Amino acid sequence: MIMTTTTMIEGKPVESYLGIVTSEVILGANVVRDFFASITDIVGGRSGAYESKLQEGRESALNELEQRARRLGANAVIGIDLDFETLRDGMMMIVATGTAVRV
C-alpha cells in the first residue's frame, strides 16, 4: 500500500476516493521512563526512551490507518497527517488521518 503525506501520487491518478480514514493510539509511558526523561531534561540531550515510545506510537497509528484503508478496498492513503498530543502525565496520543483511495 502506498502511504503519503502528499495529496497525489506522481504517475498514479486517483481512480476513486473511498473516504477519510483515522486511527488513534494512546500510549502510557512508565514511571522509570519518566524518571530518566526528567534527568535528560536537567542535564540536556535527547530522551531515547520517549523517542522510541513516539516511534512505536507513530508506527502503530500508521499500521492501523493502513488496515482501515484496506478494509475499504483502498490501495493507497494520501494526505496523511500525524498529530501528537499529551493527554496527561505520562500519556501520549497519536492521531493519524488520511484519505483512502484507489490508484
Automatic annotation (TrEMBL):
Pfam families (alphabetical): YbjQ_1 (PF01906)
InterPro entries: UPF0145_dom_sf, UPF0145_YbjQ-like
Signal peptide bounds: none
SUPFAM superfamilies: YbjQ-like
Annotated family: Belongs to the UPF0145 family.
Protein name: UPF0145 protein BkAM31D_09450
